Amino acid sequence: MSEARIAVPESAPAGGSSRRRLRDWLAQERVFRLIPFVLVEVVFLFVIIIPFLLMVYISFLKWRANRPFEQAFLSGFGNYEQVLTAPGFWSALGHTFYFAGCAVVLELVIGFVLAMFVSRTVRARGLYITIFLVPMMIVPVVVGYNFTMLYIDSGPINQLLAPFLEPLGIDPRIRWLSDPAAAQWAVILADVWQWTSLTFLIFLSGFSALPKQLINAARVMGATAWQIFWRVELPLLKPAIVIAVVIRSMEALKIFDPVVLLTAGGPGTSTQTIAFYLWEQVWVFNKFSFGAAASILLLIIFATLIFFGIYLLVRQSAAVAQQRAP
Amino acid sequence: MAQIVLKDVVKKFGAHVAVKGVNLQVRDSEFLIMVGPSGCGKTTTLNMISGLERPTSGEIAIGGRVVNDLEPGERGLGMVFQDLALFPHLTVYENIAFGLRVKKVAEREVDSRVRAAAEAMHISPLLAKRPAQCSGGESQRVALARTIVTNPAVFLMDEPLSSLDAKLRVDMRTELKRLHARLKATFVYVTHDQAEAMTMADRIVVMSGGVVEQVGEPLEIYRKPASQFVAGFFGTPTMNFLSGKIESANGGLVFQASNLRQRLAASLPSGLAGRNVVLGVRSEHVTVGANGGTPGKVQLIEPLGAESLVFFEFGGATPLVAKIDPERSLDTGDNLTFDFDPAGCHLFDADTGARLN
After folding, report:
1. Which chain A residue lies closest to B149 (C-alpha atoms)?
2. Closest Cα in chain A to B156
3. Which residues of B touch A322 (CB under 8 A)?
4. Residue B324 has pLDDT above 60, yes or no
5. Closest to B102 (Cβ–Cβ): which among A213, A221, A326?
6. Is residue A13's pLDDT more than 70?
7. Among A145, A173, A168, which residue's Cα sits nearest to residue A258?
8. Measured between alpha carbons, how far is residue B343 from residues A6, B241, B281, B316 in Å?
9. What is the pLDDT of residue A2?
10. Which domains does chain B have, with CATH numbers?
């Protein structure tokens, strides 16, 4: 029947006939439903596949962006060898894991505690939630500027710390942005300040979703507040914890804004993260092929970690689905 | 001894008064069922006994001890919740052991008591499973085992059978009655299902709008409802109600509606004459085919097996329903005559709904 409908009359002009045939072909159910996928595939091809293949290609070349591309030549795994033997790469990777580890742990703990308190608060709950979500909504440049002000030697942070540090005989004038160890923590704390909002939000939704009857059941059975938290609430919050860990870890490994805005990787290279290192190699030193090789290596390292995180997430989701099955 | 006494208990949620001065005595070892429609205050009352809600005013005593200020865990109760509230992350064994472990009972004793409770509820093979792997009936037994393992003197149950299918619910009713007979503990059970209340309770508390409408044994509630609300709540099909007036006739009293005249029991006080009332009569007290009865016309017949329900109109506001022998040959549209058994007639005040006879 559909063939009869799409049959082209013999008298139709040739150009119009092929256009109509194409239109009729596209209008067919089996073709039409594939159109969105084709569009997505095209976008995927141009936005991801082609640039990725280009990057792989460039990673095997010897080329600096300040020289003509015609002078580029294939150098095999030379760039990879350079990256793997560059002390800056490993040092930046180490800083990245250090920053991400410290920041994510702090964000998880603070976000969890805040969410716990807010979930138990009845009055002005909406106000607390709004206040705790504000940092996440602020543009990173503004955060960087604000923290630069806060971190100056005679700034408010040192003023606040002075009464605690002076009795211990510690110089209260901490050089947050010029001492290597303090600068690392300056970057971490700025990240914690901005992104604790996200973990707070994840944990708050977790606390809100806890079934009240389970907590009531535990109360009737004589469990103390601590026992209810430890034996009932915390295990049931495991999926929220895993989600927060995975999402924040993936983001924290790309830490870049506070480094650029606060320390520019310094003093020395003490706050250089891998994202900053790559940016510097590519855009300051024009080492495009070196940057491409480093990116591929990072992709392998981070993808392994992310897949492990996703595996944890899926396993957790499956366990929750099984627990909640009727 | 686990007698529960509620004295003038009131519970307010903001401006809304959920429970309006309940006075109630639950006897030791009694199976008391609180029944009523949604929002009548029965679950709130149960929650106040459990300690999950604090009364706004009034006093609650369990075993002679006022418990108003005690935490739920300090009241010596066991509770089964509507959705059972089994911990999904724990195995059946750990669920049953939970109440003992939080009280730091020695692990050896925990083990023996958990296994004994599981044995009693026939769920020993399920101990290693998680609640999600148990069927509805099994989960029900796990919830009961978790409650009996701590040997509470009082069991509180908040519509625990509502999530089960009809057949399983009937089976579990029997199971609960057996459990009560074996444990001899005080059971306070909340339901909106009058059949559950009738079949299991020693006594029933009927609640409506935050007040106790009637407390009594199941048959007493069924046969002598204290108000039109109670009369309408209990019994399937619902009691027939007719609005009318009581008049004196031939030295006795008759009920007079627009197109129905019904003689009433001779024992009624003559002082009722002239009052506007609602006459209530259950379907089994409607005699179909009575000589000299009121004429009516069959609208619908519902065969139930052992009996049939015949719905017929007679010119009144609503059709009446009668229980008849299923072998009786009646069909939709047939004419019939009907009469009421005077002993089965209930009279309620037209304004207040209070019982008059």
Report:
1. A221
2. A220
3. 130, 132
4. yes
5. A221
6. no
7. A145
8. 81, 15, 9, 22
9. 42
10. 4-229 (3.40.50.300), 240-349 (2.40.50.140)
